[in-house]
Amino acid sequence: MKSHLSLYFILCLSFIIFNSTMSRSQTVIPLWPDGKIPNDLKNRNVQEKIEAGNDGILRISNIVLPVLSAYFPDKPNGAAVIICPGGGYSIEAAGHEGVNVATWFNSFGVTAFVLKYRLPDDALWSNKHEVGLEDALKGIQIVRENADKYKIDPSRIGIMGFSAGGHLASTASTHWYLAKDLTGLKNLSNPEICKPNFSILMYPVITSGPFKHAGSFEKLLGKTPSQEQLDFYSTEKQVSDKTPPTLLVHATDDKGVPVENSLLYYDALRKLKIPASLLIYESGGHGFGLAQKLKGSVHSWPESCKAWMIGMGFVK
User: Fold this and answer.
1) Tens-digit pLDDT profile for the chain (316 aa)?
2) CATH number for the domain formed by residue range(s) 4-311
């Protein structure tokens, strides 16, 4: 068995090599110093996998080393977005819901970070339900603490998520102030350093109610979660006056994650008068990413997202 340190360098190197043709300015940033990953059961019999399927989708699974992969625009405008790819908390679709989106953000000056977050796995982590949230909040902390280095305005750092990654992004948006309750962030003096300034949620998993994506919640909480756990991670029930402005994007014909997930979160924001916008398209299905190959109005969501960021003052 390779040592923990050797494995770290091998995995980071493979990730750099795989993406080097996709971005000329990528930097891989480890989330946890010296490999001291919180909740780590140190089971290295599980090997991290990076593979592309016959459908062309890049999938990462068995994640043991969470990192941020940074994509820098030629002319940064000060805005930054941390991107959480989806995959039902089983894999991460790091290409069309990660790298491709990051390079699109770069095209209009936004610095982007693709988050390779830990997936809930009893074989790898204690308290598996909290490890993804730890990684998301740690990622925001790192970006904000290095804002000058990365030419970022610390008041314009957002989080974006797709499908189950949208659940993670919405959890970071609703639970950020509880950061010090997490194993890896207990030494924080001020949890506000982990707060996203805005959220972009793409066909997100939100609710544990009648419209839930059962597979994501089972992966996150196990087969027999308590009602208290289900409510805690049903993020439409956790929206508060501390939740940031949000853009939600969904297709009506989504058979994977029903559109009601976005509707419920939007309604919770609206009731608290938190700035929120909702883009609902007649078609597009689930997992459409940038929707570059789709016909219909969903094809225009990236331009609408850009317009929202400008209108809200996150892109200047």
Assistant:
1) 444 444 444 444 444 444 443 444 479 999 998 879 999 999 878 889 998 877 778 899 999 999 999 999 999 999 999 999 999 999 999 999 999 999 999 999 999 999 999 999 999 999 999 999 999 999 999 999 999 999 999 999 999 999 999 999 999 999 999 999 999 999 899 999 999 999 999 999 999 999 999 999 999 999 999 999 999 999 999 999 999 999 999 999 999 999 999 999 999 999 999 999 999 999 999 999 999 888 889 999 999 999 999 999 999 8
2) 3.40.50.1820
Residue spans per domain, the chain? 4-311
Is pTM beyond 0.90? Reply is yes
* Distance between CA atoms of residues 75 and 7, nearest Å: 35
